[in-house]
Structure formats: structure tokens, C-alpha cells
Amino acid sequence: MKHKLLYILIMAILNTLAIMPKFLRRNFFYILSRVAYFCAKRTNNIIKNNLNFVFKNKLKNDEIKAIQKYTYFNMVQWVQTIIENMTITSEEVKRDVIIENVDIIYKLLNENKRIIFISAHYGNIEVLSSYLNRFVLPVTQVARKSNFRILEDYITKSREKSGSTIVYKEGALRHLLKALKQNKAISLIIDQNITPKDSIEVNFLGKKVYQSTAATILARKLDAYIVPLAIFNLDSYKYKIKIYDTIKPIKTDDEKSDFFKLTQLQADAISNIIMEDPKQWFWAHKRFKGHNKEIYK
To answer: How far apart are CA 167 and CA 142, in angstroms?
Structure first.
């Protein structure tokens, strides 16, 4: 009974936000991001520690505060976009987004190459997915199950509204293999900390980290091409998607060397994207705890 009442309450809130005039909804989420900044001291410390670690304590306090505030703004944008995706039209998406180097994708498609997109929690990733599915090609993407199970169907429905196919992280490799074998593009977000068991050690933002090998395994197995991409938030809720140089599959007799090279190339690509505009990355992850737990104490 309690779960049902909670579901009704949350859906009432979401439906109310959905029918609000856009400027009111966006002002609400902007204010929410500022409230989060002032209340979430623990997360603020994680962001600050990550920034100090990567930039070697060279950022000024005002710069750190600006990035902390932007991190929360970006996070609420994801929620806002999940709500707006339920009713937004393709014309509205196209009006708000520009894309650079899309010919890289079309070239791979014309050559019948299998495609693995890699990206990070960077910019408005919900808009990135929506645009790709509507105007470039449908994508099978991996998602983590929500901590709030009653919202899971809503989030999945929103993401699939644009044509995406969602598979969940648990057991995802089997679904991704199947999609690639059917010549469907897949998408992975690979910027979070991961256990040593499912990873290898690489350099990321100049630091030793454990990096997911999922894209590497799939690229070697099915001769797939890895395409880094990112979305940048511009002013007034406009966005720019950038497609980056393709990472070709590497498959020699030296599997260990291939794994390291391919995975390091992915880490380099994501690192370079983050450094283009550091504030757009989600610095609240404990990305470096695999080798540097002390910075989060």
C-alpha cells in the first residue's frame, strides 16, 4: 500500500512538472540545483577532492565552487530532460542541437562497420541519446537500474520514446553482442570507477584508474569500431554534439597488449573530452578510489 501511494505521489509530481510552462519547469530545476549545492556537503567534498587531485590543487576556490554548482545543474537537467522527452517533438530537438563530424558515423555505416559509441556523464547525455536516435541511427544503450524502482518504467519509457533500446547493466554483454551481430549500434558510458575484476589499469586524466573493458571485448570479438562522442551544454538550453576520431579494432596474437592499447585509447579519448570543458563532467563520481581511496576520506 505504501509503495502504491508513493508511486501515485511521484507520478503526480512528474505529471505536474510535465504540464508546467517550459520556463517555469526550468526555473524550478535551476532552483533545485542551487538547493542541492547548499545542502549536499558530502558530495561537494567529493567534487572538490576530485578537482584538487586532477588539477594538483591549482584551481582557485571560486573555480571549484562554480564547477560544484554546475555539476548539480547538469544533474537536474538530466531529470528535466527525461520529463520533457515524453512530449518533445523531433522538430524541437533538431532546433536545439547542432552536431559536428557526423560524417564519421555515416562513413562507417556506408562501409557496413559495426559501431560502439563511448561517452561519459558529460553535458546533457539525455539530449545526446534523443538526438542520435531520432536523426542519426537507433542505439542500444546500457543503463543502470534506478535506485527508485517505481521510477524505472518511467525513465525507460522516456529514453525509448526517441527510438533507443535499453538494456540493463546486469547481463548486458550478452544483449550488446546480439545487437552488434545484428549490425545495430550500441552505446556505453565508460567514465565511472569499476572493480579490478572487470577492468584493466590505464591512465585517465593523468591518474591510474581501473577502466571497463566491455567496449574492448566487443570491438575485438566482432571487429567493431569505437566512436567517442560528447554533448556540450551551450547557453539557453542549446547543445552541441561532437563526434571524434574513430578507434579502430586491434586484434593481434598478443591479446594482453591489444586489450591495454584499445582500453587506453578509450580512456585518452574521454580524458580529452573532459579537458575541453571540465565543468561539464560529472565530478561527483568517486572515479579514482580504486587507487586513491584516501582522497575520499
So the answer is: 5
